[in-house]
Specification:
- By secondary structure, the chain is α/β, with parallel strands linked by helices.
- The protein has one domain: Ribonuclease H-like superfamily/Ribonuclease H (Nucleotidyltransferase, domain 5), CATH 3.30.420.10.
- The chain contains eight helices and six strands.
- It has a six-stranded mixed β-sheet with strand order 1-4-3-2-5-6.
- A hairpin with a 4-residue loop joins strand 3 and strand 4.
- The longest helix has 23 residues.
- It is globular and about 45 Å long.
- It starts with a helix and ends in a 29-residue tail after the last helix.
Length: 221
């Protein structure tokens, strides 16, 4: 599959996760239960969302939501509230559980700044999937096309919505959940392919990716 075919092929839509498999954690007990399941996993998908800033010089107060995915379920941690921080810290600082995602530099810096969480054992797929000779990072859209021959549909309206709200819409929940779980699914597919990536994955195809961070080497376990 070359760059031209990635752009031209009429791929079917990536189906995403079912809403019934997304858990918005609304109390300490739910967060603790989710933390136990996540800590029992070998690898989880990881992403975060922040309320956008609209004025020049305005500082972000995010992240406001952290998404952690197993193979079958996604947990949404609304970190602007008072519960769940201990469970979230235990998972993200675990050296045993691998965290995988795309463009994680900003996510990790914001969590460290806001909650003093030092995320450990991380693989940024945007870095490991890029082909030899390419600069920048690969985004989830290109990776989904490459591994699954599907189109990951991303709504800019939802992506720039208010993630600090106490009542997330169904579309927000699904958007956030897919961001985390698609990373884990791609990681599994990458392993099945013997960690081999064809060099024609082109970072230029993901210009609408919301993350614009310098390349960052994956952590070691």
């Amino acid at each position: 599959m070359n760059r031209g075919s990635l752009r031209a092929a009429a791929f079917p839509a990536y189906p995403g996760i079912a809403l019934a498999d997304v858990r918005l954690l609304d109390c300490e007990a739910a967060c603790s239960e989710a933390g136990e399941e996540l800590l029992a996993s070998d690898a989880i998908g990881f992403d975060s969302e922040s309320k956008p800033t609209f004025h020049k010089g305005e500082a972000s107060t995010g992240p406001h939501l952290v998404q952690l995915a197993t193979d079958t379920r996604v947990y949404l941690f609304p970190i602007s509230r008072s519960h769940g921080n201990d469970a979230l810290r235990a998972v993200l600082e675990s050296s045993r559980v691998l965290k995988v995602g795309f463009g994680l530099g900003n996510d990790r810096r914001a969590l460290q700044s806001k909650l003093r969480i030092e995320t450990r054992n991380v693989v940024d797929l945007g870095e490991v999937l890029r082909g030899p000779g390419h600069r920048g990072t690969v985004g989830a859209k290109v990776a989904v096309a490459h591994f699954f021959a599907q189109t990951l549909q991303k709504s800019k309206k939802i992506g720039t919505s208010n993630w600090a709200t106490a009542r997330l819409s169904e579309r927000q929940k699904l958007y956030a959940a897919d961001d985390a779980q698609v990373a884990l699914r791609i990681y599994r597919a990458w392993l099945q392919n013997g960690r081999a990536v064809a060099p024609m994955i082109d970072v230029a195809d993901d210009r609408d990716d919301r993350r614009r961070v310098p390349p960052q080497a994956p952590d070691s376990a």
